[in-house]
Design brief:
The chain is α+β, with helices and mostly antiparallel strands. The protein has a single domain, classed as 2-Layer Sandwich (YaeB-like fold), CATH 3.30.2310.20. A 5-stranded mixed beta sheet has the order 1-5-4-3-2. The protein is globular, with a radius of gyration of 14 Å. The two termini are 17 Å apart.
C-alpha cells in the first residue's frame, strides 16, 4: 500500500530525536507497539481514530499509546500537505496533557520550520 502520509522524527539542532530515544529505551514488546501505532498514523493521518489520538490545540496533536501500564503521549504536527512530524514522547501522569508539553511541541515546531521547508524536507526521509 502506498502511504499518503510520511512520518518524520523531529531532531534537535544537535541531532537528538526524543521520540526515537524514548522508543529505543523500551522493551521489545513496547517498541513494537509504539512502532505499529506510528505506522498506523502514517496510513490514516488526519483520520486517526479518537481513541488513538486527538487534536490538542494550536496545530498540535497527540498519539496515545498505553505501554506496560504507562499512558504515553507522542505529540506531533502536520506540515507541507503530506508530512507528520513527531516532536517528543512523554509519560502522561495527569488527566490533561500538561501545557508545558504542548508548549515544548510548539517550540520544536518553530525550530523545525526555521531549518526545513518544502524543498529540503525530503532530506529527512529514510
Amino acid at each position: 500500500m502506498n502511504k499518503k502520509w510520511k512520518v518524520i522524527y523531529y531532531k534537535t539542532k544537535d541531532g537528538e530525536s526524543i521520540v526515537e530515544e524514548f522508543i529505543n529505551s523500551r522493551d521489545v514488546k513496547n517498541r513494537l507497539k509504539l512502532s505499529s501505532t506510528i505506522d498506523y498514523l502514517e496510513e490514516v493521518g488526519i483520520n486517526l481514530h479518537r481513541s488513538l489520538g486527538d487534536y490538542l490545540k494550536d496545530g498540535i496533536h497527540e498519539l496515545r499509546v498505553k505501554l506496560s501500564g504507562d499512558e504515553t503521549r507522542t505529540l506531533y504536527f502536520f506540515c507541507f500537505e503530506t508530512y507528520i512530524v513527531l516532536t517528543h514522547t512523554f509519560i502522561k501522569r495527569t488527566d490533561k496533557v500538561p501545557e508545558k508539553e504542548i508548549n515544548k511541541a510548539k517550540e520544536y515546531r518553530k525550530d523545525f520550520f526555521s531549518r526545513y521547508n518544502i524543498n529540503n524536507i525530503k532530506d529527512l526521509l529514510i
